[in-house]
Amino acid sequence: MTKRIAIIGAGPGGYVAAIKAAQMEAEVVLIENREIGGACLNRGCIPTKTYFRNAEIMSSLKHSEEFGIKVEGYSLDGKALLERKNRVVNDLVTGIEKLISSYPNIELINGKASFKDDKTLLVQLNEGGTREVTADNIIIATGSSAQMTETKGVDLKGVITSDDILELDHIPETLIVVGGGVIGVEFASIYKELGSNVILLASRMLKDADKEISKRMTPILKKQGIETYVNIRAKEISEFEGKLKVVAKYKEKDEEIEVVGDYVLIASGRAPVVDGLNLDAVGIECAPKGIQVDDHYETSVPGIYAIGDVNSKGIQLAHVASAQAEYVVETIMGHIPDIVLEHWPAC
Questions:
Q1: What is the pLDDT of residues 226-249, one digit of tens each?
Q2: How many angstroms separate the CA atoms of 280 and 271, rounded?
Q3: Based on the domain organization, do 262 and 279 belong to the same domain?
């Protein structure tokens, strides 16, 4: 009998699971309420790398005279930067859509899914109306979203997330980045080279990186020209003379600083997307870190799996989500997976 697999989310976990399952001759229903490709392709890895390339070129232009090359009068067009990013993203999204549509046993449904029972999903269709989807197995691959802190003033205009900054059509004169993780450090470095004055407020610097890297990152950022403060937490954000002022307090001493900028980027990490899934209705256990799974990525309900950023493993990397997708599909189809997931490359 042909296996029927429903997959919630078409990011690097979901669409890879769908393709793998289709190749193994399962009947697949792939449900996505936003763009194909998930956060990585639309609001993460790919957009930031397009901006990184622009930043790299700007850095080369700034130092061109060191190589005997004089370039005068160059400037950066924020709107053109945004348009290029959108072209790159759209081209890749279109490519994945074509790949998915090439499999006759994958049905793509545009809508938001929630659990009715352990074999049934209720989908609120983007075009209106609802539809029930039944399956032998269900894979949750809803990913993560940018997380806001509880700092006073985060609801002010100009306080933005990593999603928001990728939609700006101009380069801020001064950008304050709150957060010293990979997202905060990446955006701080990029926007410094794009022409912003950047102020970085970090509670900890790259806490999950190798100690040698995290130890050296602060002097590297300062050498780049980024005003960097470590072991400090943003206490309050307020409006100040048409800009935004951040009051930050050091963690280990009774001292505060005030910095002023045009935008405040909150880069405090990402949270699993579980709202609206109705997990309680089927008894799927979920913690703040994500949906609880065992070593085979099966949830507390047999036959339902969770992969990628949404699960409790806490490894928020696109290629890890894709690897987990292949592992789970092979497991569902009765195979013993040969992929090794105990170790993974960071980036």
A1: 999 999 999 999 999 999 999 999
A2: 18
A3: no
